[in-house]
Design brief:
The strands form 2 sheets. Strands 1, 2, 4, 5, 7 and 8 form a 6-stranded mixed sheet that branches. The chain has a 4-stranded antiparallel sheet with strand order 3-6-10-9. The N and C termini lie far apart (72 Å). Helix 3 runs antiparallel to helix 6, helix 4 packs antiparallel against helix 5 and helix 5 runs antiparallel to helix 6. The chain has 2 domains: 172 residues, Acetylcholine Binding Protein, Chain: A (Distorted Sandwich); 123 residues, Neurotransmitter-gated ion-channel transmembrane domain (Methane Monooxygenase Hydroxylase, Chain G, domain 1, Up-down Bundle), CATH 1.20.58.390. By secondary structure, the chain is an alpha+beta fold. It is 39% helix and 32% strand. Strand 1 and strand 2 form a beta hairpin.
């Protein structure tokens, strides 16, 4: 009998310890009002959103102040307004409107036919995941209907909670060097896609027209130096100028965008037209006008098909990739 009493006491203590080990749940959600000032050059944008928390003020969360202790891991809070704090029966509720600058690394491989998956990552700066566990408010979190992004459309909104591991003691020598901590992280994400091809056409129109002009040079006799070579050289400078304009819209990185590829291929084709023009001039000066005319005929027939065919294929792959 005595033995069973000790077993019962041990079981009660064990259950109590397990109950205490359970992290306190905190429901968190966001409503995105605006996504503005997309800046590919500086890898950032401005986000305007409402954030809210629901929790029970007991145990580890007896003095919990979510609006003071939450932080945006991939950005900074610029302002916090419309703060509401109240009690709904036995549940505490807090919400605020946040304006934040979010940092993001854009994948510009398909620029200017690109699309992106953006995230805002939120953690509590005080409680680890042993004490606090975020629960995503799936039913109430969403994108607003008045998101202001000229040229872009936002969709496929999603919220989730993951665990974030930090392998550091943050310089606290009272902890071992191998110390690590885990925090509950709330992530809201969405896709942004370009609404049309207007921007892409404006960026690439010059390079396509300039390359077409270089091909037109094959309709001019190689001996007409000013017209024949002037078209190619002018097209070369036009494509270089267009490349500078495109580069100014993207950050300095090792990534070669689709626009960069189109400009490089265009330069290669234009340089090829200049080489063929020089060779045609050599043939005419050697009294081989017929052969020069044949080269011009095949060049005007094949080169435009190769260049524009490749460009269409590359754009199709970027749009559907």
């Amino acid at each position: 009998m005595k033995h069973w009493r000790w077993v019962c006491i041990f079981a009660v203590l064990l259950l109590h310890a397990m109950a205490r080990a359970e992290p306190a749940p905190v429901t968190i959600g966001v409503f995105v009002n605006k996504i503005q000032d997309l800046n590919f050059r500086e890898n950032k944008y401005t986000l305007d959103f409402f954030i809210w928390f629901r929790w029970k003020a007991e145990g580890e969360l007896a003095d919990y102040q979510p609006l003071e202790s939450f932080e945006i891991i991939n950005g900074r809070i610029d302002s916090k307004t419309s703060v509401i704090e109240k009690k709904i029966r036995d549940v505490n509720y807090a919400s605020a409107r946040i304006s934040a600058t979010i940092s993001d690394t854009w994948n510009l491989t398909s620029f200017p036919f690109d699309w992106h998956r953006n995230e805002v990552r939120i953690e509590n700066s005080v409680h680890t995941s042993d004490e606090l566990q975020f629960v995503a408010d799936q039913s109430n979190s969403r994108l607003g209907a008045e998101i202001d992004m000229p040229g872009w459309d936002a969709s496929r909104f999603d919220v989730k909670v993951v665990e974030s591991l930090y392998r550091t003691n943050y310089g606290d020598i009272s902890l071992p060097t191998e110390a690590e901590s885990i925090y509950s992280r709330f992530i809201a994400s969405w896709e942004i896609r370009r609404t049309g091809w207007g921007g892409a056409v404006k960026l690439l129109l010059t390079v396509f027209l300039a390359t077409a002009v270089a091909f037109v040079a094959f309709l001019v006799r190689p001996s007409d130096l000013d017209a024949r070579f002037g078209m190619g050289v002018g097209a070369l400078f036009a494509v270089v100028a267009s490349s500078v304009v495109v580069s100014s819209a993207t950050p300095d990185s090792g990534t070669m965008t689709l626009a960069d590829q189109i400009h490089l291929v265009a330069l290669a084709f234009i340089f090829t037209t200049l080489l063929l023009s020089a060779y045609g001039l050599h043939l005419e000066l050697s009294n081989k006008e017929r052969r020069a005319a044949q080269i011009d005929h095949w060049s005007i027939s094949v080169l435009p098909v190769l260049f524009f065919g490749w460009a269409v294929w590359a754009i199709w792959r970027a749009v559907n990739g």
